[in-house]
Amino acid sequence: MSFVSYAQNFEDVMLWRALKHIEKGFYIDVGAWSPESDSVTKAFYDRGWRGINIEPDPEMCDRFRNDRRDDKNLCVAVADFNGEYPFHRLGNSGLSTLDKRVAGDFESRGMEVRVFPVPVLTLNRIWREHVGRRDVHFLKVDVEGFEERVIRGNNWRRHRPWVLVVEAMQPMSQVESYHAWEPILLQADYLFAYADGINRFYVAKEHGELLDNFKYPPNFFDDFRTSALHESETELGVMKSRSGELLARTEDLRSEVVHVHAALDEKNRELEDILRKMQGGNKDMAAVEDENKRLTATASELRMEVERLNGHVLHWWKMADSLKGQLTAVHSSWSWRITAPLRRLAGFIIAGFSPCQRCAKRAKAFVYPAVLGPLAWIIRFVLSHPGLSRRLSCNLQRYPWLYQRIIEAARQAGMLPAGPQEHVLQQSCSAVIEPPAFAKFTPKARRVFEDLKAAMARRGKGKD
Q1: What share of the chain is helix, strand, coil (3-state, %, to 5)?
Q2: What is the Rg, in whole angstroms, of the alpha carbon atoms belonging to the chain?
Q3: Percentage, residues of the chain above pLDDT 70
């Protein structure tokens, strides 16, 4: 797997060449600035190394706390004293410094400078409080002109990183600045190993075997890529993966389109069948409409017929009311009252006939001669008055049995011989003709019909 370099001048490539045999090593980065951009330690962190990042800029220190959670992140500056010192923040760049002269130079070039105090620690104190007795495999110092004071704040005989990388040029220039501090390192048995145009590399004398790794600058055999290239390749891989997914999705969509077209063709065929059925249904609908019109006309005729029948019903209702009035007049007439004894006698005879038929036969010889005398007088009186005879005859014809008995009694009494007289009596009500279905009438209907005949006979007499 190729090494990914994040450092500005491939410092991490040189360090990896010398220290790649160390698993999970330890580093200290003084003036770390960014957890990723131009970082000397990012590649090592990604490969399992851990260490201490020292950055006095509060904003950049917060980024370390978020991105390097497994590292020790100190928001302090480093010098040859412990305390507090003015920090010159030069915009959002890696040029911020404790050196007032350097900050003034950048400010004169138009850069914005903001000054505020920050805590300051020495390397000795940091080593004592945060490193202990562990090996530090490399130490990087990049503090924009304050390198000498950082180096003077460490006991190099006691605290000895294996490899030391120190910025050796004045900020943003090619003017060398290492002459003031390099003697301190050389006197502490550090061996100069390599200069890359910005930094100078030193190796502790006790790890002199690492010197051969610094003979040549980064090259093809280091098998590395820049972080920018790595990001581009990563994005390209993502794009290829996404492209493959899109192609697969395109194929799926193409297949779906084919299925949709097939389904659409099927639906079109179904629609054509429906249209044909609708065309056939239109003919049926026309026949239904004709039948509906015919039924509507029939219904209209039936409504007219109902209205006509309602008129007839109203007419006959009025006729019934009129006949009811006439019937009331009949019941209040003199002839109706005078024949009341006969009706009661007939009712008595009819009511007693059925249960007492045997007794009637036995009593006939006694009762009949007793009744015959008064009855003969009544018949004789009625026959002597034609009008009364006609009325009585009409009333008695309601009760055929009684009528026939009276006729027989009159014949036996010699008052009405058979022949013309009986015919005259029978014809006395001929003005009122019984309907053929009279025998099918209920008793109540017969009485009503007889009352009507009597009323009509009375009206005919009044005309005479």
Answers
A1: 60, 15, 25
A2: 71
A3: 77
Domain boundaries along the sequence of the chain: 3-222, 228-332, 342-463
The confidence score (pLDDT) of residue 144 equals: 87
Burial state string for 25-55 with b = 16 or more CB within 10 A and e = fewer than 16: bbbbbbbbbbbeebbbbbbbbeeebebbbbb
Confidence check: pLDDT of 16 > 60: yes
Enter the DSSP assignment of 208: G
C-alpha 268/C-alpha 281 separation (Å) is 19
Other residues' Cβ atoms within 10 Å of the Cβ of residue 248: 10
User: What's the maximum distance between 2 C-alpha atoms anywhere in the chain?
Assistant: 190
What is the model's pTM?
0.54
Pairing of strands 77-78, 83-90: unpaired
Q: How buried is residue 200: exposed, middle or buried, by Cβ count under 10 Å (0-12/13-18/19+)?
A: buried
Which has the higher per-residue pLDDT, 335 or 236? 236
Of 96 and 461, more confident: 96
Given a cut of 60, whether residue 284 has pLDDT beyond it is yes
Residue for token digits 């360090």? Answer: 15
CATH number of 3-222: 3.40.50
Answer for the pair 127, 159: CB distance below 8 angstroms, yes or no. yes
Q: From residue 180, how far is each of 101, 151, 177, 183 by CA, in Å? A: 16, 10, 7, 7
CB-CB contact of 452 with 327 (8 Å): yes
- What amino acid occupies position 397? Q
Q: Which two tokens stand for residue 14?
A: 């040189």
